[in-house]
């Protein structure tokens, strides 16, 4: 073994950007472990309960950037009770004492209180970037603290959070000395912001590249902002409503012509379709377009817009684009890599907006497609087989048929063969979501072919334990498995308990798993937290072991049962 | 259509199918499927209205029974898998769509100044025309597809998205609302000319 002084090793390790690589080098010898430990700046924790904050700080004392995820994915769909956990405060409390150099924080699905935001804002003099995704528990007061106290703030990015809006002056809390903003996204806020303060803020931040407004910012203000910030690359409009004959609109048309750098566009929560022509010049260079909240852009307006966007790589839209609209996308957007089609009609009644035909058209036209989220009314095996043949590069394939157990609507067969074709053809598939009528056969295919699969979401599928076993045995790289309403029971759960230590987490709800089975699992695997969520009032100790468990969430952890679990969560 | 066949076979698969909704909700599921077939042309707003009115009860929206409540499907918690943030913003937006107006200028031949009206306020052509009549103190004739407006020297026209001047009343109301940029009430021989064009 060569002995390099540690000062030499450290800059060498700097070149290792992947944490997997850094984990590997830290295992080589004690010296390398030490160097990596002291120089590791970026840490990713996919499950905030896998380690206690103190352990993180002890292991990596000089972290500058942390990514933390809290609630399980199914919390997005109201399957996890409100107070389940995922609290950020213990983390910020611990880090405030030890990480003076913290600069970046990215939180997903966590409960973030105003108190924790205030503590954050006061504790880290170099703090630069805060990204909150699908979080809750805070109000605009917490944002005011961030704005006021983080002198070097570059990025404040709020994505789809539930924020209590006190309609205060949080935006005005950015001091006049704040000129460092690069990215500001407050699209998810519901309340009004001080428009004068907004315009001044934009004017004094020359490096502002990304700005996403909320629905209360009117079109006149958009025009003024674009005038001040023609360098913007990512724009989210606020309210895009105006009489197209009005002066503000005409001004906007001219101002847009000067905004040559916009590559990403979103917003349009409120929209006058007559005003869309103003942004056509932007469309020519767009690589990313998110119209998934723009329910006012439909039919010919939508098609016309798409026609301009021939450099698009990412497109998020609502399903009233229809199959014909998707054909336009297929013929126009040859560079498309990621497509998400969201349902506009949430209960599956009424307009059959997109079907398998739209998806097939996309697969024929968009050969670079590798990421898909597709909500549709119906699907066929033939279509999926065609898609698999045309697009073998899928890394992410999430299909959601609005009626979750709907069969192939032409042959009335289960959709096993279709999904089987996808996993067989797409050798790089990392994430898969299934829906439709499915038997154990689809899991047989997944276990056999989906070698790179890391995350699998299953709902209303399968016939028995065999299905789950195929997956657990076959998918060597599986990290997250989430299952709801499937007939998988204790036999499947307990067949290979060691598997769960190789995974981040397993979620099972409304399955056939019993309390007794979970207890057995918990006993065999002390490195797992096996949590039972039981919302009914059955708190007695001597519950029957044969009782079916409503919701079970298990995950590997270094620090045993968590101490902040609410009453309805039992850790076995 | 193949849809009907699928529907019938769905009944056969019910025995092995995992239950989705409340017991006894089969009926509304049938109704739901039926309403899918017949409701293809229903505007999204109508469907949304139906949804917001019939939250958790299995009943129709009190309209013409076409909009059978989707309640059975609505009761599957967490399905379709959409982030609650997105779901909630749909509700808010529906309200907003109801409140944002579509204001268009209306000019009348011979009048000294223009007016502005919010066409979103009206449910259809009859209401709109009546409002115009009251606003400008004149009478519009009777509309027919073949001859335009008969019985008066005034014809309501509008400029559409392509810049063309069209006779009010030819296209479905929704289409008119989304394509009307401004209106002009034409008078006299010019108006006649429009009415006679085939």
TrEMBL record, chain A:
Species: Tetracentron sinense (Spur-leaf)
Q: Keyword set for this entry?
A: Auxin signaling pathway, Nucleus, Ubl conjugation pathway
GO cellular-component terms in the record? nucleus; SCF ubiquitin ligase complex
Q: Which CDD domains match?
A: F-box_AtTIR1-like (cd22159)
Pfam families for this protein: F-box_5, Transp_inhibit
Q: Where is the F-box domain?
A: 4-45
Q: Which SMART domains match?
A: FBOX, LRR_CC
Gene3D superfamilies in alphabetical order: 1.20.1280.50, Ribonuclease Inhibitor
Biochemical pathway: Protein modification; protein ubiquitination
Query: Example GO molecular function term?
Result: auxin binding
Protein name per its UniProtKB record? F-box domain-containing protein
Q: Which GO terms describe its biological process?
A: auxin-activated signaling pathway; pollen maturation; SCF-dependent proteasomal ubiquitin-dependent protein catabolic process
TrEMBL record, chain B:
Q: Where in the cell is it found?
A: Nucleus
What keywords tag this UniProt record? Auxin signaling pathway, Nucleus, Repressor, Transcription, Transcription regulation
Q: Where is the PB1 domain?
A: 101-188
Lineage, top-rank taxon, reads Eukaryota
**Coiled coil region boundaries:** none
One Gene Ontology term, aspect cellular component = nucleus
Q: Which biological process, per GO, is one annotated for this protein?
A: regulation of DNA-templated transcription
InterPro entries documented for this protein: AUX/IAA_dom, AUX_IAA, PB1-like
Which Pfam families does this chain map to?
AUX_IAA
Has keyword Transcription? Answer: yes
Tell me the segments the record calls region Disordered.
20-73
By sequence similarity, the record places it as follows: Belongs to the Aux/IAA family.
Instruction: Kindly state the subunit structure of this protein.
Output: Homodimers and heterodimers.
What is the role of the protein in this entry?
Aux/IAA proteins are short-lived transcriptional factors that function as repressors of early auxin response genes at low auxin concentrations.
Record protein name field = Auxin-responsive protein
């Amino acid at each position: 073994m060569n002995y390099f002084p540690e000062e030499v090793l450290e800059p060498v390790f700097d070149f290792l950007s992947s944490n997997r690589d850094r984990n590997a080098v830290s295992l080589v010898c004690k010296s390398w472990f030490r160097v990596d430990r002291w120089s590791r700046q970026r840490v990713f924790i996919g499950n905030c309960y896998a380690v206690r904050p103190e352990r993180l700080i002890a292991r990596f004392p000089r972290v500058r950037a942390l990514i933390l995820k809290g609630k399980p994915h199914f919390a997005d769909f109201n399957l996890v009770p409100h107070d389940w956990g995922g609290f950020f405060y213990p983390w910020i409390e611990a880090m405030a004492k030890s990480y003076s150099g913290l600069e970046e924080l990215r939180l997903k699905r966590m409960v973030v209180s105003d108190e924790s935001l205030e503590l954050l804002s006061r504790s880290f003099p170099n703090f630069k970037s805060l990204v909150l995704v699908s979080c809750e528990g805070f109000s605009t007061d917490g944002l005011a603290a961030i704005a006021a106290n983080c002198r070097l703030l570059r990025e404040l990015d709020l994505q789809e959070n539930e924020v209590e809006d006190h309609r205060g002056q949080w935006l005005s809390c950015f001091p006049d000395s704040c000129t460092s903003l690069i990215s500001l996204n407050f699209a998810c806020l519901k309340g009004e912001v001080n428009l004068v303060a907004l315009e001044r803020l934009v004017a004094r931040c020359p490096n502002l590249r990304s700005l996403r407004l909320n629905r209360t910012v009117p079109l006149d203000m958009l025009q003024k902002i674009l005038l001040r910030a023609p360098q913007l690359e990512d724009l989210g409009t606020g309210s895009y409503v105006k009489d197209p004959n009005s002066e503000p609109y005409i001004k906007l048309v001219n101002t847009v012509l000067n905004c040559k750098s916009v590559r990403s566009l979103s917003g349009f929560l409120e929209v006058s379709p007559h005003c869309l022509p103003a942004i056509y010049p932007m469309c020519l260079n767009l690589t990313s377009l998110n119209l998934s909240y723009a329910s006012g852009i439909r039919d010919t307006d939508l098609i016309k817009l798409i026609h301009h966007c021939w450099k698009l790589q990412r497109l998020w839209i609502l399903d009233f684009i229809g199959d014909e609209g998707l054909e336009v996308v297929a013929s126009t957007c040859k560079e498309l890599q990621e497509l998400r089609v969201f349902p506009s009609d949430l209960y599956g009644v009424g307009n059959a907006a997109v079907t398998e035909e739209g998806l097939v058209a996309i697969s024929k036209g968009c050969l670079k497609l590798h990421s898909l989220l597709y909500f549709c009314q119906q699907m066929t095996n033939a279509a999926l087989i065609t898609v698999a043949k045309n697009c073998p590069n899928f890394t992410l394939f999430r299909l959601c048929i609005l009626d979750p157990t709907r069969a192939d609507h032409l042959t009335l067969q289960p959709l096993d063969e279709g999904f089987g074709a996808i996993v067989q053809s797409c050798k790089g598939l990392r994430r898969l979501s299934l829906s439709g009528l499915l038997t154990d056969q689809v899991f047989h295919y997944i276990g056999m072919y989906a070698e790179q699969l890391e995350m699998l979401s299953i709902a209303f599928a399968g016939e028995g334990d065999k299905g789950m076993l195929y997956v657990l045995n076959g998918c060597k790289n599986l990290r997250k498995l989430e299952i709801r309403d499937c007939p998988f029971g204790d036999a499947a759960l307990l067949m290979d308990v060691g598997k769960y230590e190789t995974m981040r987490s397993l979620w099972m709800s409304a399955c056939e798993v019993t309390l007794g089975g979970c207890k057995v699992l918990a006993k065999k695997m002390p490195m797992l937290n096996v949590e039972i969520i039981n919302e009914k009032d059955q708190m007695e100790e001597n519950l029957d072991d044969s009782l079916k468990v409503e919701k079970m969430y298990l995950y590997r952890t270094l620090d045993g049962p968590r101490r902040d679990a609410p009453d309805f969560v039992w850790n076995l | 259509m193949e849809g009907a066949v699928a529907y019938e076979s769905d009944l056969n698969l019910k025995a092995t199918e995992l239950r989705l909704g409340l017991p006894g909700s089969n009926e509304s599921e049938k109704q739901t499927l039926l309403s899918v077939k017949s409701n293809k042309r229903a505007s999204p707003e109508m469907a949304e209205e139906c949804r917001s009115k019939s939250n958790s009860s299995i009943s129709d929206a009190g309209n013409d029974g076409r909009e059978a409540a989707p309640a059975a499907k609505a009761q599957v918690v967490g399905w379709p898998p959409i982030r609650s943030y997105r779901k909630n913003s749909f509700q808010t937006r529906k309200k907003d769509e109801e409140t944002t107006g579509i204001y268009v200028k209306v000019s009348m031949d011979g009048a000294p100044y223009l007016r502005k009206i919010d066409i979103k306020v009206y449910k259809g052509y009859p209401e709109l025309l009546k409002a115009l009549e009251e606003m400008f103190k004149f009478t519009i004739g009777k509309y027919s597809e073949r001859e335009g407006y008969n019985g008066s020297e005034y014809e309501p026209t509008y400029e559409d998205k392509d810049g063309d001047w069209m006779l009010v009343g030819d296209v479905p109301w929704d289409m008119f609302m989304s394509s009307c940029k401004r209106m002009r009430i034409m008078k006299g021989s010019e108006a006649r000319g429009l009415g006679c064009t085939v």
